[in-house]
Design brief:
By secondary structure, this protein is mainly α. It folds into 2 domains: about 100 residues; about 70 residues. Helices cover about 85% and strands about 5% of the residues. Strands 1-2 form a two-stranded antiparallel ribbon. Strands 3-4 form a two-stranded antiparallel sheet. Helix 2 runs antiparallel to helix 3. The longest helix is centred in the C-terminal third of the chain and has 74 residues.
Length: about 190
């Protein structure tokens, strides 16, 4: 009797335990395995109790419905993510365009209303600087040359003024000499 009671108690515990696992939400594969384990065998067939079959059907339909709902939720989340991705992509494109414009502005310098690249701007600026430096050195050369010529001309003028003064002196002396002679001749003519 003990040998019969022990397997029956074990079987009943298995059924109770199996029903508890069926009622809990489990994946379908575990549910089918559990039904298979608690069902009776007859030749090569398995006999499933109607209540277990109904539970299996109910759990399967709930699982399928749950999976459908999860699929719909994931599909809506996916659509939202695709929209967000598109929005982010459009925003990234706008940001890239703004970045390119900003880089162009950073690499360009406006000179006299003309946008020049930094290399062209530097080339123009250094050309102007070299031209101004060349002009400055030319004017310094001309200034020194003219100053030298002015000094020579001033020294020549001083010599000519000295000569002119000497000539005037001589001329005055000669004139005085000639006046005296003329006066002497006039006096001689009067006296004679």
């Amino acid at each position: 009797m003990k040998s019969v009671v022990f397997p029956v108690i074990l079987f009943i515990c298995g059924l109770i335990n199996a029903q508890d696992t069926i009622e809990k939400t489990t994946p379908l594969a575990d549910l089918f395995d559990s039904i298979y384990n608690i069902s009776n065998s007859y030749d090569s067939y398995k006999i499933i109790k109607k209540i277990h079959f109904q539970d299996l059907k109910h759990q399967s339909l709930d699982s399928v419905e749950n999976y459908k709902q999860q699929l719909v939720e994931k599909d809506s989340v996916l659509k939202i993510e695709v929209q967000n991705f598109e929005r982010v992509k459009v925003q990234a494109d706008k940001t890239q365009i703004a970045l390119n414009q900003s880089l162009r502005k950073e690499n360009n310098i406006s000179m006299f209303g003309i946008a020049l690249s930094k290399t062209n701007y530097n080339l123009v600026l250094w050309s102007i600087n070299l031209l101004l430096l060349f002009g400055l050195s030319y004017y310094i050369y001309k200034y020194r040359n003219n100053k030298h010529l002015t000094i020579i001309a001033q020294s020549g003028l001083a010599e000519i003024e000295l000569e002119l003064t000497a000539y005037r002196k001589k001329s005055l002396e000669n004139e005085q000499k000639l006046r005296r002679q003329l006066q002497d001749e006039i006096n001689k003519q009067r006296n004679s």
